């Protein structure tokens, strides 16, 4: 059955591809934050596992192509591996339910190893599934067309790639929103089960849709895999050359000619063309090493930034959507405007030059990321190192207060109802502090462990001088852009305090609460009840801050509240990431699109599978490079790591440009035509020889 001249079956294939890509990119978008915040892994370890997973996803297509071409056929391969894929997505979703092992109902899992084992099993199955079906779906779609439907087939591939981008764009917007929701049985958490569960459901939909169309598909029987043939041919040539390495055997023009004893001239010529292109692939993985850090390092960078875009709050993992949005805009712009302009200027912008420009642009994108990181680092607070303590002073009284720290630092005077921010001390030299305020004196011992922050609250009242230490218990910026809020009751009566949905209970005079976590970017309402009098106010705390809120008064007319900033909010706006995304997307357009196009133009049509495998292999190797560089470099400063990657790519780019300079473009169809001509001549020759032999026999 056909629809507008297209086989009806391809609509099932396109819907299947949309759902599958939604499923993959949706899960991948929140993956790095799941590692960091749910499994509590470090940035470096999270990045390492993330890139191992992506590398696996690009290694398994080779396996998928072998299974499809040599054994099961494309249809059965897609169905069986989609089942594996769906199971993997479901397991990953289950692994993110904290209530599974949260025995004490405190909101965090008590048995991390169960969650790690489940999520790793899920991810391995997903890598097998997504990779295994990747080389089959597009080719299976192409199989549905007849020979004379060339125009429709070309349009199908355009719609197919559009469905990939639409699926990735929508999922990268939607799954971070799902992740940001609060859910859980005993205590409310970030909703990872939903963020992973929706992609799992869509993968199940993809599978069902694909199976429904089963009766309409044209199913081509497996023809044997050309990759195996190529590998055997290369292997035989090497073995044969090694066996005939002595001087008595004449040299051959090309080392692959040593396979001519077993393989025909045509296959050897085709393998030569393929190897010529694959040789150029050697430097390409370095590009992917930078490109795929959008989902890891750049997302982690966004967690330290301000996502307030006016009426909407952007989640750190949503910044990744900038790439697919720009791709949809840039591909037509580059094709219709930029390339023709370059041509008009008389510049011969060959495919290899485009790839080189792509590498330079990706390198520049990482320089932009490094410059941005330097700006972010300036805004980050300094926390005490080992052997150090930090002290902040809050003067809650109406008299000024002077605090003496001994010989380490000059005396500090704090104005009434004011504070002095954190000062750093060597813990070993700090035994006690003495406080003077309004004619009263008091000494306060300091016997705490190093590496922490403390707040000294001081208040001189009519009767005595009050001084007390608060243990802050915060040595890093709040995660995920959350805010930490605590209260001090500076009113002579008990007071009940709530902020948003969180109750701080009834607080006695001069008592302080512990910090509570609040989602970033919201405006929260603060309510206090004192002797049946209700007071309320509201405030937005930005992203990633910590505040001590001091209630100074609460009457029918006034609600006097002071905000003391313990950790400043993220001040560098997420929009500053857009330039680096823009440069990297431009790099992708000239690199990625051109790369595949160039490969196909330089090799015979029956070798496309080998080149596709080689191309995907460069992506896998690129992700392995991230593991090695991030693991072995030992660089502590993130900006320096960005610069290192930029420099490495630039160095590789120079190597590639040199290789490209010596490359001569070929026309595979011309070479194939020559081979056809030679074969015809050979057949004619053989026929003539046979005729002569037949004549000789008849004369006898």
From TrEMBL:
Tell where it localizes: Apical cell membrane; Membrane
Please list every transmembrane segment annotated in the UniProt record, as residue ranges: 48-68, 75-94, 114-133, 154-174, 194-217, 273-291, 325-342, 354-374, 609-630, 642-666
Region: Disordered, residue numbers: 677-700
Which reactions is this enzyme annotated as catalysing? Answer: N-acetyl-D-muramoyl-L-alanyl-D-isoglutamine(out) + 2 H(+)(out) = N-acetyl-D-muramoyl-L-alanyl-D-isoglutamine(in) + 2 H(+)(in); L-leucyl-L-proline(out) + H(+)(out) = L-leucyl-L-proline(in) + H(+)(in); L-alanyl-L-valine(out) + H(+)(out) = L-alanyl-L-valine(in) + H(+)(in); L-aspartyl-glycine(out) + 2 H(+)(out) = L-aspartyl-glycine(in) + 2 H(+)(in)
InterPro entries per record = MFS_trans_sf, Oligopep_transport, POT_fam, PTR2_symporter_CS
Instruction: List the GO biological process terms.
Output: protein transport
Lipid biosynthesis listed as a keyword: no
Q: Which domain of life is it from?
A: Eukaryota
Q: Which Pfam families match?
A: PTR2
Quaternary structure (record): Interacts (via extracellular domain region) with trypsin.
Q: Does the keyword Calcium apply?
A: no
Q: Write one Gene Ontology MF term.
A: symporter activity
Q: Which residue intervals are annotated with compositional bias (Basic and acidic residues) in the record? A: 678-694
Function field: Electrogenic proton-coupled amino-acid transporter that transports oligopeptides of 2 to 4 amino acids with a preference for dipeptides. Transports neutral and monovalently charged peptides with a proton to peptide stoichiometry of 1:1 or 2:1. Primarily responsible for the absorption of dietary di- and tripeptides from the small intestinal lumen. Mediates transepithelial transport of muramyl and N-formylated bacterial dipeptides contributing to recognition of pathogenic bacteria by the mucosal immune system.
Gene Ontology CC, one term: apical plasma membrane
Keywords, sorted A to Z? Cell membrane, Glycoprotein, Membrane, Peptide transport, Protein transport, Symport, Transmembrane, Transmembrane helix, Transport
Give the main location.
membrane
User: What NCBIfam families would the database entry show?
Assistant: 2A1704
Identify its protein family: Belongs to the major facilitator superfamily. Proton-dependent oligopeptide transporter (POT/PTR) (TC 2.A.17) family.
The way it spans or sits in the membrane comes to: Multi-pass membrane protein
What protein name does the entry list? Solute carrier family 15 member 1
